[in-house]
Amino acid sequence: MEILQATIDHVEYVAVLFDAYRQYYGQDADLEGAKKFLSERIQQNESVIFVAFKDGQAVGFTQLYPAFSSVSMKRQWILNDLFVKADARNLGTGKAILQTAQEFVKNLGHKGLLLETTPDNTKAQKLYESLGWKREENFYYYW
Where are the domains of the chain? Predict the structure, then answer.
């Protein structure tokens, strides 16, 4: 498996995964919209995307958005999207993508990486915790 930081040249591959990810969350298919959205994020340096390839096929991705901590006066990142194709699950794909994202943030010396998941996504929670992620219990989040 190979994990790369996506460039504009990878948009075609990532867009298919991104569109499937959005459909998983109840959105209508929109491959052209996915390509446009991802192209804009990359071209405007508004996100960092890592894409996993296995046997030449794109099988998973994550998208990170920058944020800042006023208290620590450091940049931090939000892991907003993570998706692995069904046939690439349970093969270490998600773990490899997460480790790549963690290393990216660590190598930059930034504060950390934040993600959220639903309470019933226990399989993902086990993966996150196996990689050293800690569930936040000191703050309430409001929407």
Answer: 2-130
Distance set, CA 90 to CA 62, 111, 112, 123, 140 (Å):
17, 29, 26, 10, 32
**Per-residue tens of pLDDT for the chain, all 143 residues:** 999 999 999 999 999 999 999 999 999 999 999 999 999 999 999 999 999 999 999 999 999 999 999 999 999 999 999 999 999 999 999 999 999 999 999 999 999 999 998 889 888 899 999 999 999 888 888 87
Taking phi over 0 as left and psi of -120 to 50 as alpha, with beta for the rest, 46 belongs to alpha
- Burial label for 54, CB within 10 Å (0-12, 13-18, 19+), is middle
**Distance between CA 83 and CA 60 in Å, rounded?**
5
Pick the CATH number of 2-130 from 2.30.42.10, 3.30.230.30, 3.40.366.10, 3.40.630.30: 3.40.630.30
